[in-house]
Amino acid sequence: MQFSAEQIATLIQGKIEGDSKVSVEGFGKIEEAGPHDLAFLANPKYEEFLYTTQAGVVIVGEQLELKQPVKSTLIRVKDAYSSFAALMQYYQQMKAKQMVGIEEPVYIHPTAKIGDQVYIGAFSYIGENAVIGNEAKIYAQSYVGANTKIGNRTILHPGVKVYHDCLVGNDVTIHAGTVLGSDGFGFAPQQNGTYNKVPQLGNVVIEDYVEIGANTCIDRATMGSTIIRKGTKLDNLLQIAHNVEVGEHGVIAAQTGISGSTKIGKNVMIGGQAGLAGHINIADGTKINGMTGISKSVTEPNTSLSGRPAMEFGESMRAMAVYKRLPQLDKKIKELETLVAQLIKERDAISS
């Protein structure tokens, strides 16, 4: 697909400097792009490449002042990064719309309802009474269980498994290998040291505009629902346990684990490899640094936390500064101990 600078500027409401008729057909990094690529400049550290790039079109900020002549056609916008991301999303959507139809072999239960303009890839399974919304894309080897609903324009990438009775909203993207609705980790300890499994009878609810990375596991609730609220973005390799609720427009980075029945507020940001204990609440706007351990509820909104166990971010940084100096402090303490011992010895000698 080819797009002219004029068409691109119209889409992102930008102003053109240069040849409005030049066309591009792909995307490239500003330092590597060729004549048929679209690039962008958002980070000032890369400005030097603006004057040497071979890109046909470059999106830049409207405040950028040129220091040298530029070969490329420029499109000036308020936010170069956001505009470039919007164009990539538009391009991806255009390509996805070309994929329509049901490949063979697949299994679709006779009671399943399939919407309009749907794509279902080979070796996929659509269970009893499942509903697939309009323009949904179900890529190869995906599984949609009985009574599960997949919303309009939602994408299940290859190998996604959505167990029975789960609800996935509109405009959701779920990447390869992710599992929704596997059993929560519920086992009742017995007096003889064994464990009896507690049936997991709930489901998983994914609201609209959520994106879930590859190989993430979201367990079904014991009773009720495990819920990921509207607009939240989840990275790869997450474990979200039974009956967890993640609030709207949250961001959670890779390898984080959230224990059962924890409730996370709106606009919460969680860094990679963080761990949250079960049955706690996290206030709206909380920021949790990577590898932080949260063992109790966070009640104050917009708190920044770091460390294991977690503490307020500024306090954590001060503690870390002391921690780095421990070898020096240990040496000084030993020197002081030697000095004190010497002073005591001298005092005792004078007394005697």
Q: Please, could you describe this protein's structure?
A:
By secondary structure, the chain is α/β, with parallel strands linked by helices. It has 5 helices and 40 strands. Strands 8-11-14-17-20-25-28-31-34-37-39-40 form a 12-stranded mixed beta sheet, with helices on one face. Strands 9-12-15-18-21-26-29-32-35-38 form a 10-stranded parallel beta sheet, with no helix packed on it. The protein has a 9-stranded parallel beta sheet with strand order 10-13-16-19-24-27-30-33-36, with no helix packed on it. β22 and β23 form a beta hairpin. The radius of gyration is 28 Å and the shape is flat. The model has no long low-confidence stretch (mean pLDDT 95).
Question: What is this structure, in a nutshell?
Answer:
With 352 residues, this protein is of the alpha/beta class.
Describe the secondary structure blueprint for this structure.
Blueprint: E1 3-4, H1 5-12, E2 15-17, E3 23-24, E4 26-27, E5 37-40, H2 47-50, E6 57-61, E7 73-77, H3 80-97, E8 101-102, E9 107-108, E10 113-114, E11 119-120, E12 125-126, E13 131-132, E14 137-138, E15 143-144, E16 149-150, E17 155-156, E18 161-162, E19 167-168, E20 173-174, E21 179-182, E22 187-189, E23 195-197, E24 203-206, E25 211-212, E26 217-219, E27 225-228, E28 233-234, E29 239-240, E30 245-246, E31 251-252, E32 257-258, E33 263-264, E34 269-270, E35 275-276, E36 281-282, E37 287-288, E38 293-294, E39 304-306, E40 311-312, H4 313-324, H5 326-351
Parallel strand pairs: 4-5, 5-6, 6-7, 8-11, 9-12, 10-13, 11-14, 12-15, 13-16, 14-17, 15-18, 16-19, 17-20, 18-21, 19-24, 20-25, 21-26, 24-27, 25-28, 26-29, 27-30, 28-31, 29-32, 30-33, 31-34, 32-35, 33-36, 34-37, 35-38, 37-39
Antiparallel strand pairs: 1-3, 2-7, 22-23, 39-40
